């Protein structure tokens, strides 16, 4: 009898009778934990092209434009936030385009007297555009074609579709024609389409009209969407890799608590903002009324910022969300947005009003209430930066950007890989393997410098993992429970830097000391 191969757990060795070679393929006992992504910014807002309510990953502004159309100088525009966040170093985005439900596709009708053998043409075009040409090209990524009416329709809704041009010309082979679709930098061609009877058409270009964005009914609150199947708006981000989320230009305080709850549930740090031109007194009242006190969200004060929009050649007033969110995803998760220079800001509503810089009294009120603000100057000099690096929590042990980012990072890393141990018999070996996986993750994070205090230089570990018989008694394991207790020491952020200076002619300097650390 030939040797037999078995996958792990499929071979019951106690029941073997026949002498033979049995190869039991055993996977690595210790699961490797893949670290969760922390560099993706989720954006929900308006666009003039692209899929609606479908999370789509893009890596740059140019890729955004190809998928969702140009940057538009209007409220709720996703492209504006992509452009700003990219300036801060963001390189990964999840885009959710939201509409008010009135969006329409652009269309172009092919008149029957423009072409010879119209019915044959319609049928041939429908096959090429809607199904693709076998062994040559797939179906169109830009348009569809209705054979009954002879009408091209853009694949996506939005006014950007009105820029699309379809050109029909002679094909490379005699008696055939070519259909070319052009939208911005996107182009596709379907060549050598045979129409059967008749002759190939002469060159004809067709413009599109009627595309609408479904924009006028969008509000900050509508960007919340619904937690249905499939989810819409903000809730469409729940299955993505976004670590920071923004409802673009949403300043509705009625949404703050729900956004925060969403962020806590799905490990997404939500960036909120108060209305343009807000006052300190009003934002304090709004936050208290909303009952917002959570590390799941960061509230930016509504001192909106002037930004030169190179895409449209104008200076615009924009929400502080994109600057803060773009900076956060560009930083490692152990970092804070505090005092990090922000790029592209040319002013603010406060500076334009002549009120001058924020006083310590102003900053004390905002920071004490769990509200961050982008201001100039910063502790490090005359540049724009976030002035607290805090979320909206009043808990001083958890109000740092680094707390929520690291907590979500570690928790998501564990949640994404440790499920492999579910369903296995609880034994000492299983508990040891669980421990090994967790220690491997935490030691890797330590080696990257993301955890640990200066005291760890003495050799003490900045983490502990307990998963043994001490916290897994038979009374628990017999009911199907296995427990791992994990503790991690995060790094503090230098917020209040104190230098004790003693000088004077009578000061004595110890010559045996050193100025080196």
What does this structure look like?
This protein has 517 residues and is α/β, with parallel strands linked by helices. It is 23% helix and 20% strand. It contains 11 helices and 22 strands. The strands form 7 sheets. A 6-stranded mixed sheet has the order 4-5-3-13-14-15. β16 (305-309) and β17 form a beta hairpin. α1 (61-68) packs antiparallel against α2 (78-87) and α2 (78-87) crosses α6 (321-330). The mean pLDDT is 93. This is Phage tail protein.
What's the SSE blueprint?
Blueprint: E1 4-7, E2 22-25, E3 40-45, E4 56-58, H1 61-68, H2 78-87, E5 92-97, E6 105-109, H3 118-130, E7 143-146, E8 151-157, E9 165-170, E10 176-183, E11 186-194, E12 204-207, E13 244-247, H4 256-266, E14 269-273, H5 280-290, E15 297-300, E16 305-309, E17 314-318, H6 321-330, E18 345-348, H7 349-352, H8 360-368, E19 374-375, E20 385-386, H9 401-417, H10 428-447, E21 463-466, H11 474-477, E22 485-488
Parallel strand pairs: 1-2, 3-5, 3-13, 13-14, 14-15
Antiparallel strand pairs: 4-5, 6-8, 7-8, 9-10, 9-12, 10-11, 16-17, 16-18, 19-20, 21-22
| CATH fold title of the largest domain | Rossmann fold
CATH architectural group of the largest domain: 3-Layer(aba) Sandwich
| Alpha plus pi helix count | 11
As laid out across the biggest beta sheet, the strand order is 4-5-3-13-14-15
Give a brief rundown of this model.
This is Phage tail protein. The chain has 517 residues and is of the alpha/beta class.
List the defining traits of the structure above.
517 residues, alpha/beta, Rossmann fold, six-stranded mixed sheet, four-stranded antiparallel sheet, 22 strands
């Amino acid at each position: 009898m030939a040797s037999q191969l078995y996958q792990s757990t499929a071979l019951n060795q106690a029941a073997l009778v026949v002498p033979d070679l049995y190869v039991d393929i055993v996977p690595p006992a210790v699961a490797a934990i893949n670290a969760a992504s922390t560099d993706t910014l989720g954006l929900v807002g308006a666009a003039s092209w692209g899929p609606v309510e479908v999370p789509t990953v893009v890596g740059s502004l140019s890729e955004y434009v190809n998928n969702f159309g140009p940057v538009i100088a209007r409220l709720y525009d996703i492209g504006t936030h992509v452009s700003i966040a990219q300036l801060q170093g963001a390189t990964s985005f999840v885009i959710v385009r939201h509409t008010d439900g009135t969006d329409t596709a652009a269309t172009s009708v092919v008149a029957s007297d423009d072409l010879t053998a119209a019915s044959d043409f319609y049928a041939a075009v429908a096959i090429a555009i809607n199904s693709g040409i076998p062994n040559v090209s797939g179906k169109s990524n830009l348009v569809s074609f209705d054979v009954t009416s002879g009408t091209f329709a853009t694949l996506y809704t939005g006014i950007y579709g009105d820029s699309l041009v379809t050109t029909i010309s002679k094909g490379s082979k005699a008696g055939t024609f070519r259909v070319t679709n052009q939208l911005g930098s996107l182009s596709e061609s379907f060549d050598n389409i045979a129409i059967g009877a008749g002759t190939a058409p002469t060159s004809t270009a067709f413009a599109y009209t009627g595309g609408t964005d479904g924009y006028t009914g969008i509000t900050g609150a509508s960007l919340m969407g619904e937690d249905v199947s499939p989810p819409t708006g903000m809730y469409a981000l729940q299955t993505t890799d976004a670590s920071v989320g923004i409802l673009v230009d949403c300043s509705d305080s009625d949404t703050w608590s729900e956004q925060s709850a969403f962020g806590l549930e799905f490990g997404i740090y939500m960036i909120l903002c108060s209305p343009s031109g807000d006052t300190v007194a009003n934002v304090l009242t709004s936050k208290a009324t909303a009952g917002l006190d959570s590390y799941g969200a960061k509230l930016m004060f509504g001192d909106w910022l002037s930004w030169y929009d190179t895409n449209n050649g104008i200076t615009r007033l924009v929400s502080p969300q994109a600057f803060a969110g773009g900076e956060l995803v560009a930083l490692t998760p152990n970092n804070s947005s505090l005092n990090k220079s922000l790029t592209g800001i040319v002013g603010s509503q406060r500076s334009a009003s002549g009120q001058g810089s924020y006083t310590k009294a102003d900053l004390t009120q905002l920071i004490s209430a769990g509200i961050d603000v982008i201001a100039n100057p910063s502790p490090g000099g005359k540049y724009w930066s976030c002035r607290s690096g805090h979320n909206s929590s009043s808990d001083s042990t958890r109000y740092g950007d680094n707390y929520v980012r690291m907590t979500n990072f570690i928790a998501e890393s564990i949640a994404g890989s440790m499920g492999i141990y579910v369903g296995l018999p609880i034994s000492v070996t299983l508990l040891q393997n669980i421990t090994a996986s967790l220690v491997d993750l935490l030691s890797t994070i330590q080696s990257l410098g993301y955890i640990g205090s200066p005291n760890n230089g003495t050799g003490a570990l900045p983490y502990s993992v307990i998963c043994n018989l001490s916290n897994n008694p038979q009374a628990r394991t017999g009911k199907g429970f296995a427990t791992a207790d994990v503790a991690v020491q995060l790094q503090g952020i230098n917020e209040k830097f104190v230098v004790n200076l003693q000088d004077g002619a009578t000061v004595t300097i110890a010559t045996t000391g050193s100025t080196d650390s």
